[in-house]
Design goal:
With 113 residues, the protein is mainly beta. The protein has a single domain, classed as Immunoglobulin-like (Sandwich), CATH 2.60.40. Helices cover 13% and strands 40% of the residues. It is built from one helix and nine strands. The relative contact order is 0.20. Keywords: Signal.
């Protein structure tokens, strides 16, 4: 009987610590391209734009929020270390779609976040 009680007690913490976020928003999404990558993370609140190609062309991410608002996050230092990072969404208004773009080249197809 003591072993059974220990097993039941061991399961309880797993039940208590179940995350309460929506499964659809509980993941990070990275969209790679030949010139860098765009990323939506932290429950679809943060957008990263990371230029990885020293070609002198600007790299940025366009995004759309649940409300329909749109915006842009760019990597202002080119392919040097560091990315463009911005908290643009919220739990009530997360990023739902995004695309990666490069000056003079255009954008990739839109992708669900």
């Amino acid at each position: 009987m003591k072993k059974l009680k220990a097993a039941v007690v061991a399961l309880v913490p797993g039940i208590i610590f179940v995350p309460w976020t929506s499964p659809a928003l509980a993941h990070d999404v990275r969209y790679p391209s030949n010139n860098g990558y765009g990323q939506v993370r932290d429950n679809h609140e943060i957008v990263d734009a990371c230029d990885t190609n020293r070609n002198g062309k600007g790299f940025y991410v366009l995004y759309s929020l649940r409300s329909g608002a749109r915006g842009r996050v760019g990597d202002g230092n080119g392919a040097d270390a560091g990315c463009g990072i911005a908290r643009v969404g919220s739990p009530q208004n997360p990023v739902v779609r995004f695309t990666v773009c490069q000056d003079f080249t255009g954008c990739s197809p839109w992708r669900d976040a």
